[in-house]
Each structure stands twice: as C-alpha cells, then as structure tokens.
Specification:
Elements: E1 3-8, E2 12-18, E3 24-31, E4 43-44, H1 46-64, E5 69-74, E6 79-83, E7 93-94, H2 102-110, H3 121-128, E8 139-143, H4 144-152, E9 159-161, H5 162-166, H6 179-185, E10 194-196, E11 199-204, E12 213-219, H7 220-227, E13 236-240, E14 244-251, E15 262-269, E16 272-281, H8 285-294, H9 303-307, E17 317-319, E18 337-339, H10 347-373, E19 379-383, H11 390-400, E20 403-406, H12 413-425, H13 431-434, E21 442-444, H14 452-462
Parallel strand pairs: 1-5, 5-12, 9-10, 13-19, 19-20
Antiparallel strand pairs: 1-2, 2-3, 4-7, 6-8, 11-12, 13-14, 14-16, 15-16, 17-18, 20-21
Helix pairs in contact: 1-4, 7-12, 8-10, 10-11
Length: 464
C-alpha cells in the first residue's frame, strides 16, 4: 500500500509518499522553525503549521497519489490550545524545548508531582492561566499530532496515540489519562484527546485530495526508531536533529529509567505495546545553527569542511548546554560553555569542538541506556540532519566507542510512520515485518581513544 507520511518536526515539515516497498517516491518540505521571543521561550504558529501540512500534502498527492493511508509523525510534547467551535488556536503553540514552566515544575516536585519542563503538562496548565485559553467544553488541548488530526479530519477527530500521550507527562501507568494529576493541575480531561493506537484507522483526512484515512499516529522519535529498523530488544538509534534523541528498543519489557533516561511506549498496535528507553540531548543541531548565527560558518553544511581543516580541536572543549543539559543530569541551569581557548584558537577549532561536544553528549546518553537496560548495543543507527556531517559521525563513533550505522535516509521518521500505516491496513504484520531488510548506507568504526575524563570535567564546569 502506498502511504502518505506527514513528518511535522521541530524546524521542518515534510510530506512524503512512500511506496509499498517502504521507499520514498515523492516529497515536499518547508522550513518552519519556531521563534524565541525571550530567553527560554520557544513558540510556533499552529495555524501556519496546519496550513503548511495541508498545502504540502496536497502538492505531493497531486503528483504521486492516491494513497491508501496517512501516517502522522510529529514533534512530541509541543502543546497547542484551540477553540473546539472555531478551530482557532488561543495563542502560539509552545515548543517542547520551552522552559517557561521550569519554576512551576520545581514547585510541583515539592508537592510530590514529578513532571518535567519538556512535558506538555505544565504547558497546558500555563495556557489555561497566563496563556488565556478558556476552560470548559470549548477548549481543546493537544500535542502537534492531535492538532493536525483535528485539522485534517475537518474538526471531527480529537485524538492522540500512546507514544505522544506519554510525552505529555499526563499518562497513567495503565495507559489512560491520569485523572488525579489532571485534577492537581486543573486540566479538564474533556479537553484532552481520545487515546488511540499507533496503528489503526482513525478517520478520513477529508481536507486532502481523495480523503485518505489517517491510519497511523506516532511520536517522531518512535517513528525514527521504527524507520531505522530498531524493532528488536537492544537495537538502538540516535536521531541528531535540533536536539538529539537516543532510543533503545526494549520489546515487551517496559524497563526502568535511571540516570535521566526514561521508559516510553515505542508503538501500540493490535499485537500489543512495545517499549523503549530514551535519553535526550537538548542542543545538537541547534548548537551547529548557533555557529551560523555567530558568523563562524556561512551555513550548516560548511561545518564539516571547516572542522576537518584541523586534526583536532587544539584543546578546546564545548559543552552544548544552550538549552540546559538533558540526560543524564537534566540541569536547566547549565549553560553553553567554551573552554581551552587560546590566542591561537581559530574558527576551525571552535567548529570542531562544537561537533565533538554534541558527540560527547550523545555518548553520555548511550552509556546511560546501556546501564539502565543491562544491554550494551553492538552498534547505534544514526539519522537526522547531523548524520550528513562526516566529522560529527566519526566523533560520535570515537566518543561512544561504538560502530555507527548511518541511515540512507537522513530523516527516517517518515519511513516509520509509513510502516505503521502498512500495519494498520494489514500490508505488514508488525513493524518488524514492515522494516525487514533495513541496511545502512555507511558503517563508521571508532578510531583511537578519546579523553572522556576531560569531557566530564567540562560538563561539571558548565553547571551552576
């Protein structure tokens, strides 16, 4: 079955037609980065996002349609509040990286409630208070997948799947909304979406040509886990995009998070729920984009050429804590730190230090997942924008001391969403069947040892 995969990421929207062999045959994309109106704030225009998805999907369907189903993969935990009657958002969407509710999360911890700033929970609460979203029957709250499903179905389906719901911080252990937590935050359960499976017919996307059915919904990291063929326990992937997410499939075992990693549903199909462990690097590609903003390089693609112009970083170490530190420390107060700069330090050394710093952060997460799961993976599969940077890929192999298997698709998210759509229609038995035969385009092996002790010291100096 040919499928339409909608990939609504943090900075880019893609609509991809995938054939019944799992190969992309047509794509439309648009850069749609969030805005930063003040330090720590990350917002996006939900209406512009919806218009982009409808426009791009219509364009690619005009050339490569019709399709048998639509799979939606989206940035998780980003929050939208809209009016059920008018369909208009009450204000800007709040991005998953937004830190405006960090203080509130600290208050809640003192009350015995554990939610993180990168969850949707306190974002929803803020939207209902200072964000001026009305409460009551006219209020809809949702993550990006919920918002897009609402728009695509002509305001008939307010739904989310288990993988996206888990990112809100509002999901109970039995897979339903946590009513006690909702009451604590004064969030009405009636404003939240209905919980559905990751693979299964939801409703017709009536605003698209041919009205194909929405048959898959999944968080972007879970989609890339599937799209990279990490569908058996122990298989691990790293998506290095705006941030970097490392995910290890744990199969039917939920696992226990430790040292800043956490268990999440990987997918929910009629065959059951599969699980994964995840850890996060909050600034990856965004740290590289910062080099462009500073004028160190003219564009992101130039960072490899510049960094490869020197054999090493000349003693320079960069900790990419531009939005704080994620796994393992989850320190909102950490700040980006550049150490070891001398009069002889040039642009090349700084550029290399940034790429190596992101690689070290990713290696930290891989180590945590190995300890938490009791399984050290034999390799890590890599996609995301930074996978196209050879300097970064080699630095990752060196810092992690692992083989890196680079994906032929820089963005495997769409492949995962399409795979789940195939499961929903019966064209594949399960995600493993849908992704059978996955192969990397390149295998990168670690070289000599890397000074990880010096890296740990740099991280300690980046923290308050």
């Amino acid at each position: 079955m040919t499928s339409l995969a909608i990939d609504a990421g943090t900075t880019t929207v893609r609509c991809v037609v995938v054939d019944d062999d799992g190969r992309p045959v047509g794509e439309e994309r648009l850069s749609l980065p969030p805005t930063n109106p003040a330090p720590g704030l990350v917002e996006f225009d939900a209406l512009a996002l919806a218009e982009a998805v409808v426009g791009l999907a219509s364009e690619v369907l005009a050339r490569h349609g019709p399709v048998g189903g639509v799979g939606i993969a989206s940035q998780r935990a980003s929050a939208v509040a809209w009016d059920r009657t008018t369909g208009r958002p009450f204000g800007p969407g709040i991005g998953w990286q937004d830190l405006r509710t960090s203080g509130r999360c600290v208050e809640l911890r003192a009350e015995g409630v554990f939610v993180a700033p990168n969850h949707s929970a306190t974002k929803f609460e803020w939207m209902m208070g200072e964000g001026n979203a009305v409460s009551g029957g006219d209020l809809c709250l949702g993550t990006v997948d919920s918002w897009l499903a609402w728009v695509l179905t002509g305001a008939t389906a307010h739904v989310t799947d288990l993988t996206n719901a888990a990112a809100t911080g509002l999901l109970a252990t039995d897979g339903s909304w946590d009513t006690a937590l909702l009451d604590h935050l004064s969030i009405p359960v009636g404003s939240l979406p209905e919980l559905v499976g990751s693979a299964g017919v939801v409703a017709a996307a009536s605003v698209l040509p041919g009205s194909p059915v929405i048959s898959a919904m999944v968080g972007d990291q879970q989609a890339s886990l599937i799209g990279l063929g990490c569908v058996s326990a122990g298989q691990t992937k790293l998506t290095a995009g705006t941030g970097a997410m490392v995910d290890m499939c744990t199969g039917d075992v939920a696992g226990t998070g430790a040292d800043g990693c956490y268990a999440m549903p990987a997918w929910a199909t009629p065959g059951g729920v599969a699980w994964m462990l995840e850890g996060a690097v909050l600034s990856a590609g965004s740290a590289v984009a910062w080099l462009v903003d500073l004028g160190v390089v003219p564009d992101v693609a130039s960072t490899h050429d510049l960094a490869s112009g020197c054999d090493d970083a000349g003693g320079v170490v960069f900790v990419p804590a531009l939005s704080g530190l994620g796994t393992p420390t989850w320190d909102d107060g950490a700040r980006g730190t550049l150490l070891g700069v001398t009069r002889g330090t040039g642009r090349a050394e700084i550029c290399r230090a940034v790429l190596e710093g992101v690689a070290h952060c990713c290696a930290d997460v891989i180590e945590v997942l190995a300890v938490a799961s009791g399984t050290r993976p034999g390799a890590v599969r890599l996609d995301g924008g930074m996978s196209a940077n050879p300097t970064f890929v080699q630095a990752l192999a060196d810092a992690s001391r692992m083989v890196v298997e680079r994906s032929s698709e820089v963005e495997a998210t769409a492949l995962g969403a399409a795979a789940l759509a195939r499961v929903a229609t019966g064209d594949a038995a399960d995600p493993a069947d849908a992704m059978e035969g996955w192969q990397p385009v390149e295998i990168v092996r670690p070289r000599g040892p890397v000074d990880r002790d010096r890296w740990a010291e740099a991280v300690s100096r980046a923290r308050p």
